[in-house]
Amino acid sequence: MRLATIGGWRGVLYYRLYYMDRFSGHIDHFREFEAEDDATAIGIASAWANGRAMELWNRQRKLKRWDEPLATPD
Fold first, then answer.
1. Checking phi first, is residue 25 left (phi over 0); if not, alpha (psi -120 to 50) or beta?
2. How far apart are CA 14 and CA 26, in angstroms?
3. I need a surface site. Which of 42, 57, 61, 72 has the fewest CB within 10 A?
4. What are the C-alpha distances in Å from 24 to residues 8, 33, 38, 53, 74?
5. For the whole model, what pTM was predicted?
6. Is 15 exposed, middle or buried (0-12, 13-18, 19+ CB in 10 A)?
7. How distant, in Å, are the alpha carbons of 17, 24, 25, 28 from that of 55?
């Protein structure tokens, strides 16, 4: 893994992917992982999408939110 450069310091970036509860909208559980940059992290998180609402964060920065697909009437 290539190390990211942050303010002159080289290291990996840590991300947290929050899975949201569909009824309350609160965090149900999360998954932590490392990536070399934001674009890579978004790609990794997208691969873990399971149709639930999710939010991807790097420290205090929210990078992306995935909403649940709307239910279609029969």
1. left
2. 22
3. 72
4. 41, 25, 28, 11, 25
5. 0.77
6. buried
7. 6, 15, 11, 11
**Residue 64: which residues within 8 A CB-CB, separation 6 or more?**
42, 45, 55, 56
Under the banding of pLDDT at 50, 70 and 90, the label for residue 61 is very high
- pLDDT tens, position by position, 11-56: 789 999 999 998 898 999 999 999 999 999 999 999 998 888 999 9
Number of neighbouring beta carbons within 10 Å of residue 20: 20
- For residue 26, CA distances in Å to 34, 46, 53 come to 24, 20, 10
CA atoms within 13 A on the CB side of 62: 6
